[in-house]
Please model this.
Amino acid sequence: MVTVVVAAVVLVSAALGYRALLQQRVARTLRIDVPPGIAEERFVRLGGIEQWVSIRGEDARNPVLLVLHGGPGSPYSLFTPALRCWEKDFTVVQWDRRGAGKTLARNGQEGSGELSFRRMQEDAIALCAFLEERLPGRERILLASSAGTLLGMPLVRARPDLFAAYVGTDFNVGLAASEQVAHAETLAWAEKNGSRAEAAFLARMGADPSRWDVASYHRRMRLRDRTTRDGRGMGAIFLPLMLSSPAHGLSDLRALIEGLSFCTERLFAEMVAFDAHKVAPRVELPFFVFQGDSDVHTPAPVAAAYYEALEAPLKHFELMAGSGHLGAFVRPERFLELLRRHVLPVVTGKTPSLRAAEAPGR
Model:
């Protein structure tokens, strides 16, 4: 028994030592210590609670790129090292929303207050006021991914004046719309590659989210993750980031995992009811969607159909070849090319870009 305990202690110590080494290496790549750069992380009081915000860029005079994470409780602050290349052209703002990540670690579940997308919309408006005070006069671009769409679309519908452009990726039109494509594909995969129990479960679950419960939803998500063409499900993407992030201690990682289920349970009814066609049939600002063509969670054809129906003063849709869910964050250099080519010219006004209501690009 003593030998087993000693071996366990040695393994844990080695793992923690290796993690510390990874964190140190990543921290060196994240250094921004020369003006006019900015590298700040702090808790900001939004909606009555303290919420974690990171502001990073090599030139604080650049446009602000405010990232709305998915999940809905899955903070993208973990992607900060991967997004280092974005910081040359943008001041990137990461925000752990109420009920998620460092904000959950700070407040706990009981201290998170009301957990609804409406409440988060009010938090986002307060955050924009803080950013205007901290970075006055900077153009703001809203980048919403996956479940972040459920906050981003109502937000720009209500307050287009706060942003110079909207950029969607992993665009979530709504569970009901997505399942018209995704459920059949996942069931076909399970019948060919999965077990009989998995195929039977999906068949019973059906494609109508209004009949689902949270436990079934989570199980379906795990099965769908296995259908990705490159084999990179959510766990394979996030685990290395969790191990190497210098900004996340062990308590932060525990809160991150806790927030995944906490937010989904509290927001599940809103997730099921959301329909982008009804929430925002028109927006009053430039609108862009850069979507992975291999996204199994928010299928590209569903996003493209919404884009075609949307009314906007200027819009552009482009597929990212060979990219799945979270493609913008897994391959940030490719996504940056799209931001530079299509979004920056519109926001800065330095060069002409797109025709109004341009047809989807391929």
Observations:
- Residues 2-29 form the longest helix (28 residues).
- The chain has one domain: 31-177+231-348.
- The beta strands are 38-46, 49-57, 64-68, 91-96, 140-145, 165-169, 287-292, 315-320.
- The chain has a mean pLDDT of 90.
